[in-house]
Design brief:
17% strand; six-stranded antiparallel beta sheet; single chain; alpha+beta; elongated; ATP-binding; 299 residues; Kinase-like_dom_sf; ATP binding; two-stranded antiparallel ribbon
């Protein structure tokens, strides 16, 4: 009896050792494949080159007295000279060098005529600077908002082309896994290029990755503040039901088109605007769909 029990104990011990060995082997395999999966899922843009450091002494004042391009909570943007060419220099206020480098790195990764070109940064001392190509008409910085107020473009073909070019720039941004999160008429400047008006989307300080954008919960007071002061922010973001997305960029773009239609009664653009500002994000058109509509002249 005792001998039989001892044999059973040895059998059980042996089976446990075999089971433990298999479990450890499976655990090592699982860890190995998990690491491989993590490497594949890691965003490519995490490996970023440091932006070029520009020597502050190489930035000179312009001869023109109208140096200030615009200003906001971030600081201000000035027209300056860099190595013999006119540039737009963003001066940051109360901002970390990491935030400046992130914005510079985002712009550097993008290559599209409707997006800005960056020369580099100055982050060795305050105020931190971001140096970009200057865009304007006859030497003056002109945003869509300013062009509308000043009646600088008159024809429907001109404005339709501006909307189309903006659509292509935003679609390119989305194809790179980015969302702008701050599209508005003051953040699109116009460039006179060989007699053709070309829009350029600026201000990439709030750009987010599509895959990592998070829902933000706002108090009722903050929600009301956003509805009054930041009308270009999509309602689902203000309510805290959705994170920023390509659809929220489409909503903001729809408001820009609506502003154009406020000054000019373009029925083709008005219909697109109505679709873009739909209250349900899933029912808004994609940027590619907007481009197709404009290209086919089917509106």
């Amino acid at each position: 009896m005792v001998k039989r029990l001892e044999e059973q104990r040895r059998d059980i011990t042996k089976k446990l050792e075999i089971t433990t060995k298999h479990a450890n082997s499976n655990k090592r395999k699982a860890v190995h494949f998990w690491k491989l999966w993590r490497q594949q899922q890691a965003p490519q843009n995490k490996i970023r080159r440091e932006p070029r450091q520009i020597e502050r002494d190489n930035l000179k004042k312009c001869r023109s007295t109208d140096e200030l391009i615009g200003e906001g909570r971030f600081g201000c943007c000035k027209k300056m000279m860099y190595r013999g060419r006119v540039v737009a220099v963003k001066h940051f206020k109360d901002c970390s060098d990491k935030a400046v480098h992130n914005e510079a790195a985002t712009i550097s990764e993008l290559d599209h005529p409707g997006l800005p070109f960056i020369f580099g940064v100055c982050t060795k001392q305050q105020p931190f600077l971001l140096v970009m190509e200057y865009y304007g008409i006859n030497g003056t910085s002109v945003t869509i908002a300013r062009a509308l107020k000043g009646k600088m473009l008159f024809g429907q073909p001109e404005w339709t082309d501006v909307v189309l070019q903006c659509s292509k720039a935003i679609a390119y941004l989305h194809s790179k896994g980015k969302i702008h999160c701050d599209l508005k008429a003051d953040n699109i400047v116009l460039q006179d290029s060989d007699g053709v008006t070309r829009p350029v989307i600026i201000d990439f300080g709030k750009v987010k990755d599509i895959t990592t954008a998070k829902t933000k919960k706002l108090s009722l007071v903050d929600q009301e503040f956003y509805r009054k002061r930041h009308k270009h922010i999509a309602p689902e973001i203000v309510r805290g039901t959705h994170p920023p997305s390509t659809a929220s960029d489409v909503y903001a773009f729809g408001l820009i088109i609506s502003l154009i239609c406020h000054y000019y009664k373009f029925e083709n653009l008005r219909r697109i605007a109505v679709q873009c500002i739909h209250g349900t994000p899933e029912k808004r058109p994609s940027m590619d769909a907007i481009i197709t509509t404009l290209d086919n002249n089917s509106v």
